[in-house]
Amino acid sequence: ETQGGVSGPASCALEAAVCSPNYVPGPGFPGKDAAATHRAWPAGEQPTNLQCWPRKDTGFPASCRSTTATVLEDTEQGWPGHCEGLMKI
User: Which pTM was predicted?
Assistant: First the structure.
């Protein structure tokens, strides 16, 4: 029989430090490459997609019915609206 191991903290905070409202990147963000971008954040890591999204007890992302979305960038306000890594099919 093969036995494995599990590692990690003994307990986890309810909210990751990277999800606190004060966890914002410095003036080097975005960086010229991924490493530079990560260095711009206080702990050297950028939150992953949906890492800070509220979760249900099941672990799945919670809906946002009672939360108003905030538009960060808009083509009507000068954002070019270009996407990276897309292919026309």
Answer: 0.48
